[in-house]
Amino acid sequence: MLNSTSLNDYIEECSDNLVWAFLVSELMIFISKWKIRGNF
After folding, report:
1. What domain of life (predicted)?
2. Rounded Cα–Cα distance for residues 15 and 1 (Å)
3. Torsion of CA 21, 22, 27, 28, to 10 degrees
4. How far is CA 13 from CA 8, 28, 38, 39, in A?
5. Positive or negative CA dihedral for 25, 26, 31, 33?
6. Which residues contact 30 (CB under 8 A, 6 or more apart)?
7. Is residue 1 pLDDT above 60, yes or no?
8. Which of 1, 6, 28 is closest to 14 using CA atoms?
9. What's the pLDDT tens digit per position in 2-37?
10. What is the spatial distance between Cα 24 and Cα 16, in angstroms, rounded to a whole number?
């Protein structure tokens, strides 16, 4: 059994990574839409 502090650190690190992944994907979608709109 992991001790609770290391488990909490692991969960926080994972959630931070998920937040970053979400932000990056949203940004990529926004940029691609903007480029498509700019081409027309």
Report:
1. Bacteria
2. 21
3. 60
4. 8, 22, 37, 39
5. positive
6. none
7. no
8. 6
9. 577 898 898 899 899 999 999 999 999 999 998 888
10. 12
Predicted pLDDT of residue 25: 97
- Alpha carbon distance 17, 24 (integer Å): 10
Tokens representing 9 are 């650190």
Structure tokens at 17: 């990574």
Among 38, 35, 16, CA closest to 27: 35
**Residue whose tokens read 């609770």:** 4
